[in-house]
Each structure stands twice: as C-alpha cells, then as structure tokens.
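Could you help me review a protein record that somebody else here produced? This is what I was given.
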Amino acid sequence: MALAGKIALVTGGGTGIGKAIAETLAANGARVAIASRNPAHLNGAGEAPGNGSLLPVRMDIRKKEQVRSGVAEIVESWGPIDILVNNAGIGGMNRIDDPDDSRWHDIVETNLTGTYQVTKEVLKSMKDHAGGRIVNISSVLGKFGVAGYSAYCATKHGLIGFTRALALEVVGRGITVNTICPGWVETEMARQGIGESAASLGITVEDFRRQAIQGVPIHRFIDAGEVAGLVLYLASDKASGITGQAINICGGQTMA
C-alpha cells in the first residue's frame, strides 16, 4: 500500500477526475477527505476501496472561513494532511464582449484564489520533512489559449506559475509541489464544454467531438483513472525528486 498511513485532501473529490483521484489514493492505503461545495457530490462519494477511508467535507473553497473549518475538521479527525490535491475547479466560456463579468470572477475565485486559500491553510499544519505532497490539477489550457475561454486559460496558466513559485518556497520543508495538465478527459465537465463549444461554432456536439479527437494524436480522450494514476505516483515516495513541474497527460495534444 504505497500511501499507507497518509492523510490526503482532494478538493472537488466527489465527481469526475477528483472522484477517481480520491478512490485511487484510498485504494492505496490513504485516508482521504473529499471536499466539495455541492452536498450531492459528497453523498455520492461511495465507500472507500481497499484499506483506505473516505471523509466527506462540505467546503466552498472560495470562502476562507469554510476552508479553515473544513481543514480543521480533517486535522481534528485524523491529524495533519500529508497530501493535498487541488482539483476543484470550474470552466465555461466568458467572451470578452460579454457585459456580464460574473463568470470571470467565479472562475478566478474558484480555480485560482480557492486553490491558494486551501493550500495556505493546509501548509500551516503539514509536517516538515515527512513526505508532504501538493498536486495541483491544471489543464493543457494552462499551456495554450482557446478563444472565448480567457478566465479558464488565465487560471490554468496561473496554477502553473503558482506551482513553480510555491515549490521553491516550501522546498526547505521537504514538501514537493507539482501540477498535472490533462487534455480532454471523459467527464461531465468535458461534456458540458463540448456542448458549449459546439453551440458557439454552430455545429453538432458529435461533429465537435470528432474534431476534438482528431486533435489528439492517440485519437481518444484520457480516462480519469489515468490522471489519478499520475497523482498517485507524484504523491508517493517514488516521486520525491520531482517538484515544480507541470506534467502533461494529454495523448500528445500539446504537440499537435
């Protein structure tokens, strides 16, 4: 059990990539707290596989007091967090000519400020020189831009910069910080994005999906379990020499 005795927090851990990550960490022996602002996602978290444990925690990462109370609940129940996976995030189009700025602010506050707030709170009690790990989930849109997605691209680029700076800030504590940049992943969030993009281009969802797959050299989307496997590796002792990196898992999409 690669993570036996470890305590992990996965934000946005009730669905999609986050759920796959939480289940994979638990299956490898970790006790995993699953944070979400949506109670329905926490109710659907399911039983922990393997010898791990799952703890649902209601937390809106945009709200500092909820972050503080949520992290305190985990620490009081299990002890200091060893592994933080900043997975919570939202997407959606926000065209620059849209008079409504609310989506920009919501995406930035969730994806970037929320990640900052959770990380800052967890680091207060994370042990020094004890294999501490922080893994941020960015996107290939942190490596290139897409028209109409300025907020999402800005935040995912921002997560890479945050990772690189933070890695240097905590390296003296023996804590590693890395970012994973997935391409298209088979999730509900991706399906929503496909529908939104297809509508903006005036084509069918099926046509957009075919075009998206053609843009991936391996000609398929990534499975959430593949992302979870990479998180598991980065969270393990085997990855102790890796920090400050932004690692693509995109089927070669960033080369296309």
Q: What stands out?
A: The longest strand covers residues 176-182. Residues 7-183+223-255 form a domain with the Rossmann fold fold (CATH 3.40.50.720).
